[in-house]
Amino acid sequence: MAPTRPLLVLTCGSLALALALGIRQDFGLLLAPMAADTGWSLAGLAFGLALQQLVWGVAQPLVGALADVKGPRIVVAGGGVAFVAGLLLMGFGGSLPLFQLGAGLFIGTALAAVGFSVVLGTVARAAPEARRSLYLGLASAGGSFGMFAFVPLGQGLIGGLGWQGALLALALTALAIPVLALALGGPPPAHRTLPGGGLGQALRAASRHDGFWLLTAGFFVCGFHVAFISVHLPGYVAACGLAPEIGAWSLALVGLFNVAGSLAAGQLGGRYRPKVLLSGIYFARGLVLLAFLLSAKTPAVTLAFAAAMGFLWLSTVPLTTGVVAGIFGPTYVSTLFGLVFLGHQIGAFLGAWAGGLSVEWLGSYDAVWWASVALAFFAALVHLPIRDARLPQTVTGAA
Protein backbone atom coordinates (compact mmCIF):
# COMPACT_ATOMS: atom_id res chain seq x y z
CA MET A 1 0.00 0.00 0.00
CA ALA A 2 1.41 3.39 -0.95
CA PRO A 3 2.43 5.64 1.97
CA THR A 4 -0.26 8.20 1.09
CA ARG A 5 -3.06 5.62 0.99
CA PRO A 6 -3.73 5.49 4.75
CA LEU A 7 -4.02 9.29 4.88
CA LEU A 8 -6.40 9.32 1.90
CA VAL A 9 -8.60 6.67 3.50
CA LEU A 10 -8.49 8.52 6.83
CA THR A 11 -9.43 11.87 5.26
CA CYS A 12 -12.28 10.70 3.04
CA GLY A 13 -13.62 8.26 5.61
CA SER A 14 -13.61 10.94 8.30
CA LEU A 15 -15.44 13.40 6.04
CA ALA A 16 -18.12 10.85 5.14
CA LEU A 17 -18.54 10.01 8.82
CA ALA A 18 -18.73 13.72 9.69
CA LEU A 19 -21.53 14.27 7.17
CA ALA A 20 -23.56 11.27 8.35
CA LEU A 21 -23.24 11.96 12.07
CA GLY A 22 -23.55 15.71 11.64
CA ILE A 23 -26.82 15.50 9.73
CA ARG A 24 -28.16 12.95 12.22
CA GLN A 25 -27.35 15.32 15.10
CA ASP A 26 -29.90 17.80 13.72
CA PHE A 27 -32.84 15.41 14.08
CA GLY A 28 -33.47 16.34 17.71
CA LEU A 29 -33.90 19.97 16.65
CA LEU A 30 -36.61 19.01 14.17
CA LEU A 31 -39.00 17.30 16.60
CA ALA A 32 -40.62 20.39 18.12
CA PRO A 33 -41.28 22.31 14.86
CA MET A 34 -42.48 19.15 13.11
CA ALA A 35 -44.87 18.26 15.94
CA ALA A 36 -46.22 21.83 16.04
CA ASP A 37 -46.68 22.07 12.27
CA THR A 38 -48.07 18.60 11.54
CA GLY A 39 -49.89 17.66 14.73
CA TRP A 40 -47.98 14.36 14.87
CA SER A 41 -47.32 13.15 18.44
CA LEU A 42 -43.94 13.48 20.08
CA ALA A 43 -43.99 9.76 20.88
CA GLY A 44 -44.69 8.95 17.20
CA LEU A 45 -41.82 11.12 15.99
CA ALA A 46 -39.52 9.75 18.70
CA PHE A 47 -40.45 6.21 17.65
CA GLY A 48 -39.24 6.97 14.12
CA LEU A 49 -35.85 8.06 15.49
CA ALA A 50 -35.81 5.10 17.90
CA LEU A 51 -36.52 2.75 14.99
CA GLN A 52 -33.57 4.37 13.23
CA GLN A 53 -31.30 3.27 16.08
CA LEU A 54 -32.60 -0.30 15.96
CA VAL A 55 -32.33 -0.62 12.16
CA TRP A 56 -28.84 0.88 12.34
CA GLY A 57 -27.84 -1.79 14.83
CA VAL A 58 -29.44 -4.75 13.03
CA ALA A 59 -27.99 -3.70 9.66
CA GLN A 60 -24.53 -2.92 11.04
CA PRO A 61 -23.03 -6.42 11.18
CA LEU A 62 -24.56 -7.24 7.79
CA VAL A 63 -23.10 -4.22 6.00
CA GLY A 64 -19.89 -4.67 8.00
CA ALA A 65 -19.53 -8.20 6.62
CA LEU A 66 -20.31 -6.89 3.13
CA ALA A 67 -17.59 -4.26 3.50
CA ASP A 68 -15.10 -6.87 4.75
CA VAL A 69 -15.77 -9.06 1.70
CA LYS A 70 -16.70 -6.64 -1.12
CA GLY A 71 -14.90 -3.55 0.11
CA PRO A 72 -16.14 -0.32 1.72
CA ARG A 73 -16.52 1.72 -1.48
CA ILE A 74 -19.78 0.16 -2.63
CA VAL A 75 -21.19 0.03 0.92
CA VAL A 76 -20.52 3.68 1.78
CA ALA A 77 -21.73 4.90 -1.63
CA GLY A 78 -24.97 2.95 -1.26
CA GLY A 79 -25.38 4.34 2.24
CA GLY A 80 -25.07 7.88 0.90
CA VAL A 81 -27.87 7.28 -1.60
CA ALA A 82 -30.09 5.79 1.11
CA PHE A 83 -29.34 8.80 3.32
CA VAL A 84 -30.60 11.22 0.66
CA ALA A 85 -33.75 9.16 0.08
CA GLY A 86 -34.49 8.97 3.80
CA LEU A 87 -34.14 12.71 4.32
CA LEU A 88 -36.53 13.40 1.44
CA LEU A 89 -39.09 10.97 2.86
CA MET A 90 -38.82 12.61 6.27
CA GLY A 91 -39.44 16.03 4.80
CA PHE A 92 -41.93 15.39 2.05
CA GLY A 93 -43.61 12.04 2.72
CA GLY A 94 -46.65 13.82 4.12
CA SER A 95 -47.57 11.32 6.85
CA LEU A 96 -46.20 10.01 10.13
CA PRO A 97 -45.73 6.42 8.80
CA LEU A 98 -43.67 7.71 5.86
CA PHE A 99 -41.63 9.90 8.22
CA GLN A 100 -40.96 6.78 10.31
CA LEU A 101 -40.04 4.82 7.17
CA GLY A 102 -37.58 7.48 6.04
CA ALA A 103 -36.10 8.20 9.47
CA GLY A 104 -36.16 4.59 10.60
CA LEU A 105 -35.50 2.20 7.72
CA PHE A 106 -33.70 4.42 5.18
CA ILE A 107 -31.60 6.56 7.53
CA GLY A 108 -30.96 3.63 9.88
CA THR A 109 -29.57 1.53 7.02
CA ALA A 110 -27.59 4.50 5.71
CA LEU A 111 -25.97 5.12 9.09
CA ALA A 112 -24.93 1.47 9.24
CA ALA A 113 -23.27 1.80 5.83
CA VAL A 114 -21.56 5.16 6.49
CA GLY A 115 -21.11 4.77 10.25
CA PHE A 116 -18.42 3.65 12.62
CA SER A 117 -18.20 -0.04 11.80
CA VAL A 118 -17.44 0.36 8.10
CA VAL A 119 -15.41 3.57 8.26
CA LEU A 120 -13.35 2.67 11.33
CA GLY A 121 -12.88 -0.87 10.06
CA THR A 122 -11.51 0.55 6.81
CA VAL A 123 -9.23 2.96 8.69
CA ALA A 124 -8.04 0.16 11.01
CA ARG A 125 -6.99 -1.96 8.04
CA ALA A 126 -5.30 0.93 6.23
CA ALA A 127 -3.43 2.34 9.24
CA PRO A 128 0.07 1.20 10.25
CA GLU A 129 -0.36 -1.06 13.27
CA ALA A 130 1.75 1.16 15.52
CA ARG A 131 -0.52 4.14 14.76
CA ARG A 132 -3.86 2.33 14.57
CA SER A 133 -5.24 3.74 17.82
CA LEU A 134 -4.25 7.28 16.76
CA TYR A 135 -5.90 6.87 13.35
CA LEU A 136 -9.08 5.51 14.93
CA GLY A 137 -9.14 8.49 17.27
CA LEU A 138 -8.67 10.91 14.37
CA ALA A 139 -11.49 9.29 12.37
CA SER A 140 -13.81 9.41 15.39
CA ALA A 141 -12.85 13.05 15.91
CA GLY A 142 -13.84 13.76 12.31
CA GLY A 143 -17.31 12.39 13.00
CA SER A 144 -17.42 14.41 16.19
CA PHE A 145 -16.58 17.62 14.36
CA GLY A 146 -19.50 16.99 12.04
CA MET A 147 -21.77 16.75 15.07
CA PHE A 148 -20.52 20.15 16.23
CA ALA A 149 -20.61 21.91 12.85
CA PHE A 150 -24.05 20.74 11.75
CA VAL A 151 -26.01 21.78 14.85
CA PRO A 152 -25.75 25.57 14.35
CA LEU A 153 -26.10 24.97 10.61
CA GLY A 154 -29.26 22.94 11.16
CA GLN A 155 -30.68 25.49 13.57
CA GLY A 156 -30.05 28.23 11.02
CA LEU A 157 -31.62 26.19 8.21
CA ILE A 158 -34.74 25.48 10.29
CA GLY A 159 -35.06 29.15 11.21
CA GLY A 160 -34.53 30.39 7.67
CA LEU A 161 -36.15 27.67 5.54
CA GLY A 162 -38.48 25.84 7.91
CA TRP A 163 -38.11 22.18 8.79
CA GLN A 164 -38.94 20.97 5.27
CA GLY A 165 -36.47 23.32 3.62
CA ALA A 166 -33.83 22.28 6.14
CA LEU A 167 -34.30 18.60 5.30
CA LEU A 168 -34.02 19.36 1.58
CA ALA A 169 -30.76 21.27 2.13
CA LEU A 170 -29.38 18.42 4.24
CA ALA A 171 -30.33 15.91 1.55
CA LEU A 172 -28.37 17.91 -1.04
CA THR A 173 -25.39 17.99 1.32
CA ALA A 174 -25.52 14.22 1.78
CA LEU A 175 -24.92 13.78 -1.97
CA ALA A 176 -21.21 14.28 -1.21
CA ILE A 177 -21.04 10.93 0.63
CA PRO A 178 -21.00 8.68 -2.50
CA VAL A 179 -18.23 10.86 -3.97
CA LEU A 180 -16.07 10.47 -0.86
CA ALA A 181 -16.67 6.70 -0.96
CA LEU A 182 -14.63 6.42 -4.18
CA ALA A 183 -11.39 6.76 -2.19
CA LEU A 184 -12.15 3.94 0.25
CA GLY A 185 -11.26 1.03 -2.00
CA GLY A 186 -12.57 -2.34 -3.08
CA PRO A 187 -12.21 -5.76 -1.43
CA PRO A 188 -9.44 -5.81 1.20
CA PRO A 189 -6.35 -7.59 -0.18
CA ALA A 190 -6.11 -9.71 2.98
CA HIS A 191 -9.50 -11.23 2.27
CA ARG A 192 -8.35 -12.67 -1.05
CA THR A 193 -5.67 -14.77 0.69
CA LEU A 194 -7.77 -16.07 3.54
CA PRO A 195 -8.63 -19.76 3.69
CA GLY A 196 -12.29 -20.71 3.36
CA GLY A 197 -14.37 -20.24 6.48
CA GLY A 198 -12.26 -17.37 7.84
CA LEU A 199 -15.22 -15.14 8.67
CA GLY A 200 -17.18 -17.99 10.21
CA GLN A 201 -14.14 -18.92 12.29
CA ALA A 202 -13.86 -15.36 13.58
CA LEU A 203 -17.57 -15.27 14.43
CA ARG A 204 -17.32 -18.54 16.35
CA ALA A 205 -14.33 -17.23 18.28
CA ALA A 206 -16.22 -14.06 19.22
CA SER A 207 -19.34 -15.95 20.32
CA ARG A 208 -17.25 -18.06 22.72
CA HIS A 209 -15.32 -15.13 24.21
CA ASP A 210 -16.90 -13.72 27.37
CA GLY A 211 -15.12 -10.40 26.84
CA PHE A 212 -16.98 -9.94 23.56
CA TRP A 213 -20.33 -10.12 25.38
CA LEU A 214 -19.17 -7.87 28.23
CA LEU A 215 -18.01 -5.30 25.68
CA THR A 216 -21.40 -5.53 23.98
CA ALA A 217 -23.20 -5.00 27.31
CA GLY A 218 -21.13 -1.90 27.99
CA PHE A 219 -21.77 -0.51 24.52
CA PHE A 220 -25.51 -1.00 25.09
CA VAL A 221 -25.22 1.62 27.82
CA CYS A 222 -23.33 4.00 25.53
CA GLY A 223 -26.13 3.77 22.98
CA PHE A 224 -28.81 4.42 25.59
CA HIS A 225 -27.01 7.56 26.75
CA VAL A 226 -26.20 9.13 23.39
CA ALA A 227 -29.62 8.51 21.82
CA PHE A 228 -31.59 9.75 24.81
CA ILE A 229 -29.52 12.92 25.16
CA SER A 230 -29.17 13.74 21.45
CA VAL A 231 -32.90 13.28 20.79
CA HIS A 232 -34.39 14.68 23.99
CA LEU A 233 -31.96 17.22 25.45
CA PRO A 234 -33.51 20.11 23.46
CA GLY A 235 -36.97 19.15 24.76
CA TYR A 236 -35.70 18.75 28.31
CA VAL A 237 -34.02 22.16 28.17
CA ALA A 238 -37.27 23.74 26.97
CA ALA A 239 -39.24 21.97 29.72
CA CYS A 240 -36.86 23.52 32.26
CA GLY A 241 -37.81 26.99 31.01
CA LEU A 242 -34.59 27.72 29.11
CA ALA A 243 -34.44 29.29 25.66
CA PRO A 244 -34.43 26.91 22.64
CA GLU A 245 -30.99 28.24 21.70
CA ILE A 246 -29.58 26.63 24.85
CA GLY A 247 -30.68 23.22 23.59
CA ALA A 248 -29.09 23.83 20.20
CA TRP A 249 -25.83 25.08 21.68
CA SER A 250 -25.80 22.15 24.09
CA LEU A 251 -25.85 19.70 21.19
CA ALA A 252 -23.17 21.75 19.44
CA LEU A 253 -20.96 21.62 22.54
CA VAL A 254 -21.42 17.86 22.71
CA GLY A 255 -20.00 17.67 19.19
CA LEU A 256 -17.18 20.15 19.83
CA PHE A 257 -15.90 18.50 23.02
CA ASN A 258 -16.43 15.14 21.38
CA VAL A 259 -13.55 16.03 19.06
CA ALA A 260 -11.21 16.48 22.01
CA GLY A 261 -12.50 13.34 23.73
CA SER A 262 -12.06 11.18 20.63
CA LEU A 263 -8.53 12.48 20.02
CA ALA A 264 -7.61 11.92 23.66
CA ALA A 265 -9.02 8.39 23.59
CA GLY A 266 -7.09 7.60 20.43
CA GLN A 267 -3.84 8.81 21.99
CA LEU A 268 -4.36 7.14 25.36
CA GLY A 269 -5.56 3.89 23.80
CA GLY A 270 -2.07 3.38 22.37
CA ARG A 271 -0.48 3.72 25.81
CA TYR A 272 -2.92 2.16 28.26
CA ARG A 273 -5.29 -0.79 28.22
CA PRO A 274 -8.44 0.36 26.42
CA LYS A 275 -10.75 -1.66 28.67
CA VAL A 276 -9.53 0.26 31.74
CA LEU A 277 -10.00 3.57 29.93
CA LEU A 278 -13.54 2.51 28.97
CA SER A 279 -14.37 1.71 32.57
CA GLY A 280 -13.13 5.14 33.61
CA ILE A 281 -15.17 6.88 30.91
CA TYR A 282 -18.43 5.25 32.01
CA PHE A 283 -17.72 5.98 35.67
CA ALA A 284 -17.10 9.62 34.80
CA ARG A 285 -20.35 9.70 32.82
CA GLY A 286 -22.23 8.50 35.88
CA LEU A 287 -20.76 11.29 37.99
CA VAL A 288 -21.54 13.94 35.35
CA LEU A 289 -25.14 12.75 34.95
CA LEU A 290 -25.65 12.66 38.71
CA ALA A 291 -24.24 16.15 39.17
CA PHE A 292 -26.49 17.51 36.41
CA LEU A 293 -29.61 15.96 37.93
CA LEU A 294 -28.85 17.42 41.35
CA SER A 295 -28.03 20.92 40.05
CA ALA A 296 -30.26 23.88 39.23
CA LYS A 297 -30.93 23.96 35.48
CA THR A 298 -29.33 27.26 34.50
CA PRO A 299 -27.84 27.98 31.06
CA ALA A 300 -24.31 27.74 32.47
CA VAL A 301 -24.97 24.39 34.17
CA THR A 302 -26.62 22.96 31.05
CA LEU A 303 -23.78 24.03 28.76
CA ALA A 304 -21.19 22.71 31.22
CA PHE A 305 -23.02 19.37 31.33
CA ALA A 306 -23.05 19.23 27.52
CA ALA A 307 -19.31 19.95 27.34
CA ALA A 308 -18.49 17.26 29.92
CA MET A 309 -20.72 14.66 28.27
CA GLY A 310 -19.29 15.61 24.89
CA PHE A 311 -15.77 14.81 26.07
CA LEU A 312 -17.02 11.38 27.20
CA TRP A 313 -19.37 10.86 24.20
CA LEU A 314 -17.72 9.01 21.30
CA SER A 315 -14.42 8.52 23.09
CA THR A 316 -15.79 5.02 23.70
CA VAL A 317 -15.77 4.21 19.97
CA PRO A 318 -12.03 4.10 19.12
CA LEU A 319 -11.38 2.28 22.41
CA THR A 320 -14.12 -0.30 21.81
CA THR A 321 -12.90 -0.79 18.23
CA GLY A 322 -9.38 -1.12 19.61
CA VAL A 323 -10.41 -3.85 22.04
CA VAL A 324 -12.13 -5.80 19.25
CA ALA A 325 -9.12 -5.45 16.92
CA GLY A 326 -6.75 -6.23 19.77
CA ILE A 327 -8.46 -9.52 20.65
CA PHE A 328 -9.50 -10.78 17.22
CA GLY A 329 -7.17 -8.95 14.81
CA PRO A 330 -8.07 -6.32 12.17
CA THR A 331 -9.18 -8.57 9.29
CA TYR A 332 -12.85 -8.86 10.26
CA VAL A 333 -13.09 -5.87 12.57
CA SER A 334 -15.98 -4.31 10.59
CA THR A 335 -18.09 -7.43 11.11
CA LEU A 336 -17.17 -8.02 14.75
CA PHE A 337 -17.45 -4.39 15.76
CA GLY A 338 -20.76 -4.34 13.89
CA LEU A 339 -22.06 -7.07 16.20
CA VAL A 340 -20.90 -5.15 19.28
CA PHE A 341 -22.51 -2.06 17.78
CA LEU A 342 -25.82 -3.93 17.54
CA GLY A 343 -25.84 -3.91 21.34
CA HIS A 344 -25.15 -0.16 21.23
CA GLN A 345 -28.12 0.41 18.95
CA ILE A 346 -30.53 -1.71 20.99
CA GLY A 347 -29.65 0.61 23.86
CA ALA A 348 -30.10 3.61 21.57
CA PHE A 349 -33.54 2.41 20.48
CA LEU A 350 -34.63 2.12 24.11
CA GLY A 351 -33.08 5.46 25.08
CA ALA A 352 -34.69 7.42 22.24
CA TRP A 353 -38.13 5.84 22.67
CA ALA A 354 -38.08 5.84 26.47
CA GLY A 355 -37.63 9.62 26.51
CA GLY A 356 -40.83 10.17 24.55
CA LEU A 357 -42.78 7.58 26.54
CA SER A 358 -41.58 9.03 29.86
CA VAL A 359 -42.96 12.46 28.97
CA GLU A 360 -46.30 11.08 27.79
CA TRP A 361 -46.79 8.61 30.65
CA LEU A 362 -45.07 10.31 33.60
CA GLY A 363 -45.02 13.95 32.55
CA SER A 364 -41.21 14.36 32.72
CA TYR A 365 -37.89 12.89 31.65
CA ASP A 366 -36.73 12.22 35.24
CA ALA A 367 -37.09 8.41 35.21
CA VAL A 368 -34.87 8.09 32.14
CA TRP A 369 -32.23 10.41 33.58
CA TRP A 370 -31.98 8.28 36.73
CA ALA A 371 -31.84 5.10 34.67
CA SER A 372 -28.94 6.67 32.73
CA VAL A 373 -27.01 7.21 35.96
CA ALA A 374 -27.46 3.59 37.08
CA LEU A 375 -26.50 2.23 33.67
CA ALA A 376 -23.30 4.31 33.61
CA PHE A 377 -22.01 2.74 36.81
CA PHE A 378 -23.04 -0.71 35.56
CA ALA A 379 -20.97 -0.20 32.39
CA ALA A 380 -17.98 0.96 34.44
CA LEU A 381 -18.00 -2.42 36.20
CA VAL A 382 -18.53 -4.80 33.27
CA HIS A 383 -15.43 -3.69 31.36
CA LEU A 384 -12.98 -4.60 34.12
CA PRO A 385 -13.09 -8.43 33.77
CA ILE A 386 -12.69 -8.42 29.96
CA ARG A 387 -9.84 -10.68 28.80
CA ASP A 388 -8.20 -8.50 26.17
CA ALA A 389 -5.19 -10.61 25.12
CA ARG A 390 -4.85 -11.32 21.38
CA LEU A 391 -6.24 -14.71 20.36
CA PRO A 392 -4.09 -16.94 18.13
CA GLN A 393 -4.58 -16.40 14.39
CA THR A 394 -5.70 -20.00 14.01
CA VAL A 395 -8.65 -19.18 16.29
CA THR A 396 -9.75 -15.92 14.65
CA GLY A 397 -9.11 -16.91 11.06
CA ALA A 398 -6.88 -13.87 10.43
CA ALA A 399 -4.25 -14.06 7.77
TrEMBL record:
<feature type="transmembrane region" description="Helical">
    <location>
        <begin position="38"/>
        <end position="59"/>
    </location>
</feature>
<dbReference type="InterPro" id="IPR020846">
    <property type="entry name" value="MFS_dom"/>
</dbReference>
<feature type="transmembrane region" description="Helical">
    <location>
        <begin position="335"/>
        <end position="355"/>
    </location>
</feature>
<dbReference type="InterPro" id="IPR050327">
    <property type="entry name" value="Proton-linked_MCT"/>
</dbReference>
<dbReference type="InterPro" id="IPR011701">
    <property type="entry name" value="MFS"/>
</dbReference>
<protein>
    <submittedName>
        <fullName>Major facilitator superfamily transport protein</fullName>
    </submittedName>
</protein>
<feature type="transmembrane region" description="Helical">
    <location>
        <begin position="276"/>
        <end position="296"/>
    </location>
</feature>
<keyword id="KW-0812">Transmembrane</keyword>
<feature type="transmembrane region" description="Helical">
    <location>
        <begin position="163"/>
        <end position="184"/>
    </location>
</feature>
<feature type="transmembrane region" description="Helical">
    <location>
        <begin position="133"/>
        <end position="151"/>
    </location>
</feature>
<feature type="transmembrane region" description="Helical">
    <location>
        <begin position="302"/>
        <end position="328"/>
    </location>
</feature>
<dbReference type="GO" id="GO:0022857">
    <property type="term" value="F:transmembrane transporter activity"/>
</dbReference>
<feature type="transmembrane region" description="Helical">
    <location>
        <begin position="98"/>
        <end position="121"/>
    </location>
</feature>
<feature type="transmembrane region" description="Helical">
    <location>
        <begin position="367"/>
        <end position="386"/>
    </location>
</feature>
<dbReference type="Pfam" id="PF07690">
    <property type="entry name" value="MFS_1"/>
</dbReference>
<keyword id="KW-0472">Membrane</keyword>
<keyword id="KW-1133">Transmembrane helix</keyword>
<feature type="transmembrane region" description="Helical">
    <location>
        <begin position="246"/>
        <end position="264"/>
    </location>
</feature>
<feature type="transmembrane region" description="Helical">
    <location>
        <begin position="71"/>
        <end position="92"/>
    </location>
</feature>
<feature type="transmembrane region" description="Helical">
    <location>
        <begin position="212"/>
        <end position="234"/>
    </location>
</feature>
<dbReference type="InterPro" id="IPR036259">
    <property type="entry name" value="MFS_trans_sf"/>
</dbReference>
<feature type="domain" description="Major facilitator superfamily (MFS) profile">
    <location>
        <begin position="6"/>
        <end position="391"/>
    </location>
</feature>
